[in-house]
Design goal:
With 346 residues, the protein is of the alpha/beta class. The strands form two sheets. The protein has a nine-stranded mixed beta sheet with strand order 4-3-2-5-8-6-9-7-11, with helices on both faces. Strand 2, helix 4 and strand 3 form a beta-alpha-beta unit. It is globular and about 45 Å long. The two termini are 32 Å apart.
Length: 346
């Protein structure tokens, strides 16, 4: 559970997280601008209390004393405030006709090859419901879904592998290894339990093209079970950030996919996004969170189907041998976008 994120007010346009002052920090790569907070060593040594440096922790939760993380009281409070925040942000989007700008960006994007990857379990009803939002009349979309058991008949033509038994990223490696045809210009990776807004794929690629994002994700609603506060929806169209989470949905250009694959198969992928962010700094990738296309990820809490302790152990093993950013850097917003290039003001 993200530490108290749904109890914080949505970030207003223009607000930024500025880093951690003038304390000297290690930096990464030849293109580093000495921005505090980046870690680059080989191996990237982690302190004994490393979890608090890399991931959000319960001690940071707002109102943690009266609403302990994981308690029924906290869940009720976050659900209530989350619904209020989501309703307010939805009203703002309608009042500013944000969907008009999203459709304009979608229609301006050059036709592209797009791969959509997902691993699904026994009941992929959410993934089935998302299919209209993932189809496109503009782009050449290829689906490569993997079934943990037998293929679901509703996804028969999209399922390219079955009886998958590995971790999420091991299974994604298997899907990528068997993907036919030329490399895609864009790849979308999504969980099977996320709810997408209408015309999601076209709009997401349109915004990524308009803002020059190389690695992006949709924001999550305030009722979602999100691990990082920065991924919560704001009232902007999008934000340029220093961090993009590996799930529940992410979008990456071909060059990014080639650089981050094959995916590490250690654990459940915790820590991958911190490494990707360090690579982005070194390779000058532009990262972004798209607020105007917020998704809902509410049906399964984070780490509900596997051991959190095992995931953390695997994350530490991975991060000790891979450059990565820290938690404070992950929370920074570089720029907010209240309108798209060539569009009217929002």
């Amino acid at each position: 559970q993200e530490p108290g994120g749904t109890l914080g007010a949505p970030q207003l346009p223009g607000q930024r997280v500025e880093g951690r002052g003038d304390e000297p920090q290690r930096t990464i790569g030849a293109h580093s601008d000495d921005k505090p907070g980046f870690i680059h060593e080989s191996p990237a040594m982690l302190k004994a209390d490393w979890v608090g440096e890399v991931f959000p922790t319960a001690d940071l939760a707002q109102f943690g004393g009266i609403l302990p993380v994981g308690s029924a009281r906290r869940r009720a409070a976050t659900n209530l405030t989350g619904r209020i925040a989501d309703a307010g942000l939805g009203a703002h989007a309608r009042a500013t006709r944000m969907s008009r700008d999203l459709d304009t960006a979608a229609d301006r994007a050059a036709p592209a090859r797009v791969d959509v990857l997902s691993i699904y379990g026994p009941d992929p009803a959410g993934l089935v419901a998302n299919m209209p939002a993932l189809r496109s009349s503009r782009h050449d979309v290829r689906f490569a879904f993997g079934a943990m058991g037998d293929p679901d008949p509703r996804l028969g033509s999209e399922t390219t592998a079955s009886e998958m038994a590995g971790s999420k990223f091991a299974n994604l490696n298997r899907l990528l290894a068997t993907s036919p045809g030329p490399a895609a210009d864009w790849t979308v990776i999504l969980d099977d339990d996320v709810a997408l807004p209408v015309r999601f794929l076209d709009r997401l690629i349109g915004i990524a093209e308009a803002l020059g994002f190389d690695l992006a994700q949709p924001a999550q609603s305030w009722t979602s079970d999100a691990a990082w506060r920065i991924t919560r929806r704001r009232r902007d169209i999008a934000r340029t950030t220093r961090f993009v989470e590996v799930g529940p949905v992410c979008l990456m250009r071909r060059e990014v996919l080639e650089a981050v694959t094959p995916f590490s198969e250690q654990g459940m992928g915790w820590g991958l996004c911190m490494h990707w962010a360090a690579l982005a700094k070194r390779e000058d990738w532009r990262l972004g969170i798209v607020d105007a296309l917020a998704v809902r990820h509410e049906s399964r809490p984070v780490a509900s189907a596997y051991s959190r302790e095992d995931a953390l152990t695997a994350a530490r093993s991975f991060l000790e041998t891979h450059e990565h950013i820290d938690r404070d850097t992950a929370g920074e917003v570089v720029e907010t976008h209240t309108q798209l290039p060539g569009a009217g003001s929002c």
